[in-house]
Write a structure and sequence with these properties.
Oligomer: single chain
Order of helices and strands: EEEEEHEEEEEH
Shape: globular
Number of helices: 2
Mean pLDDT: 89
Helix content: under 10%
Largest sheet: 5 strands, antiparallel
Structural class: mainly beta
Strand content: 35-45%
Strand order of the largest sheet: 8-7-6-1-10
Low-confidence stretches: 166-174
Length: 174
């Protein structure tokens, strides 16, 4: 699935809800939902991208795969250990924050991925893509809803703290 977004700012957030049905101990160890940010918004594989894939497998902990390509060449492919088997059985909320090269992801407000330089430097990202693989569509279903994409930018809380308008832990910083 490719959301109809024509241009992405350097900093943005993406949020959505996920419901999985029919997952069992027989759900494939290769069942993943992929979230990709790339330099195109077509079905062609981008030359430059950062992505993560999180697993719906129930019989083993598959974690989260993090990968990128820079000028068509893979520079990063790694697995983040996170046992999310029970989380994906329930409706869950996914949040992604992109800040230039930095790529972060939370599920139900728990940060699971934070890679400072996943996206290529000085490359305009123009699309978001979702992919699903390894799901038996006769017995298993994955539903995505409540998409929100918003421009990021200044961390409002830090800005208010620096302006002396908000305190942290009872201490007002000047």
């Amino acid at each position: 699935y490719i959301p109809d977004v024509t241009e992405l700012p350097e900093e943005f957030t993406l949020e959505f809800d996920v419901i999985a049905q029919g997952l069992t101990k027989k759900t494939s160890s290769h069942s993943y939902l992929g979230i990709m940010v790339g330099d195109n918004n077509t079905f062609d594989k981008p030359k430059n991208f950062g992505m993560l894939e999180y697993s719906f497998c129930q019989f083993i902990d598959r974690g989260i795969v993090v990968e990128n390509n820079v000028n068509g060449k893979r520079e990063i492919r790694n697995e983040v250990r996170a046992d999310i088997r029970n989380i994906v059985l329930q409706q869950h909320h996914v949040s992604v924050a992109v800040s230039k090269q930095r790529f972060r992801m939370w599920i139900n407000e728990q940060k699971l991925v934070d890679v400072p330089r996943l996206l290529p430097a000085d490359v305009k990202m123009n699309g978001i893509k979702f992919s699903l693989k390894g799901i038996n569509t006769e017995t298993e279903s994955i539903y995505l809803s409540n998409f929100k994409i918003a421009e990021g930018g200044v961390d409002l809380r830090r800005k208010l703290i620096s302006e002396g308008k908000v305190s942290t832990n009872g201490i007002l910083f000047d």
